[in-house]
Design a protein that fits this description.
328 residues; mainly alpha; 2 strands; 15 helices
Length: 328
């Protein structure tokens, strides 16, 4: 009798997403992607870590020179590339972990009903596609990671970043990371508004290619035009770097959170943390789907605060149950 009861309980737990009480444990496992986005700076800079950067890399690769030029090698006029390489690796590791978790989420392995596709944002459902096609399309977009990687390499190696960004002193300054995210999104919000409203010709060649996706999938995040990436991502990035001073570890954390968050808001599905994000004004996939479906609202990406201040915010629930599912 007890064995039969245990089997029934296990079966019910699987169908309910391994609930503990009323809490859906299984979907929330996907939230591990957020801290894992910061794997590299956390491991390399955590006190007592066996992988601390000072134990792995020669001091000459990151040490601040006596003449005060924190980013110039004593044997070369070029900046030391270690910080750049670690930054690129940080974003790459965060992105791969994010996509890895999304795979299990998409195919129901982390669904509230095990094995079922998660709730799509739009009532017409998510666009059908093969995961590997989406993955290769996403990673090979020249206007995405290729252009972004070129920007990061160029600004670093040509010493276009403020001196503080080349410093390995200290750890991740979380207040600076948050300030970078808010500043980046604020400037990106302005650029987004301008792209939509300044000139129909400019919009046609810059942002319109991205708007062919009225029901976007996660892999459409960087699919657009190079001009759009320059205006909406690179210009805000450079402006943010010159407005917020932080060290290399904080820049790594900001870069990974920003790139992955920008990817996640294009998801065709809701995530378990979306209700929390919505309440505090963090951008969700449903918020961004409003923009893709109706064009005139929700120009912000990481936060909804700027839209609320400007009067361009629309709650996704306003489009339910006709265009959007009620539970988004």
């Amino acid at each position: 009798m007890s064995i039969e009861l245990e089997q029934k309980t296990t079966s019910l737990s699987i169908r309910a997403g391994f609930d503990v009480g009323s809490f859906p444990v299984l979907p929330w496992i996907s939230a591990i992607m957020w801290p894992f986005m910061l794997t590299v700076p956390l491991l390399l800079n955590m006190p007592g870590s066996p992988l601390h950067y000072s134990d792995i890399f020669p001091k000459s690769w990151y040490d601040i020179d006596n003449d005060g030029s924190s980013y110039i090698s004593s044997s070369s006029s070029s900046p030391k590339p270690l910080g750049l390489c670690l930054g690129l690796i940080t974003v790459a590791v965060g992105q791969l972990l994010c996509l890895f978790v999304f795979y299990f989420f998409k195919y129901g392995f982390l669904s509230s009903r095990y094995g079922e596709e998660p709730l799509s944002i739009q009532t017409k459902g998510a666009r059908p596609y093969e995961f590997w096609e989406g993955l290769t399309t996403h990673l090979s977009q020249p206007e995405g990671f290729v252009l972004l990687g070129g920007y990061l390499t160029g600004t670093w190696m040509f010493r276009l970043m403020p001196a503080a960004y080349y410093s390995f002193e200290g750890g991740i300054e979380w207040s600076k990371v948050f300030l970078c995210l808010v500043t980046q999104d604020g400037i990106q919000f302005i650029m987004h508004l301008l792209e939509h409203n300044v000139s129909s010709t400019f919009y046609k060649y810059s942002h319109k290619p991205h708007h062919k996706f009225t029901n976007p999938r996660l892999f459409d995040a960087f699919n657009g035009s190079m001009l759009d990436t320059i205006c909406m991502i690179l210009i805000p990035l450079y402006a943010t770097a010159n407005l917020v001073d932080c060290n290399v570890w904080s820049y790594m954390a900001f870069g990974s959170l920003y790139a992955n968050w920008l990817t996640l808001i294009h998801s065709e599905y809701t995530f378990p943390w979306d209700q929390i994000f919505h309440r505090i004004g963090f951008g969700t996939p449903a918020d961004h789907h409003v923009h893709h479906a109706f064009f005139k609202y929700n120009f912000g990406h990481l936060f909804t605060w700027f839209d609320r201040l400007w009067g361009t915010y629309k709650n996704p629930s306003e489009y339910a149950p006709k265009a959007f599912n009620e539970r988004v």
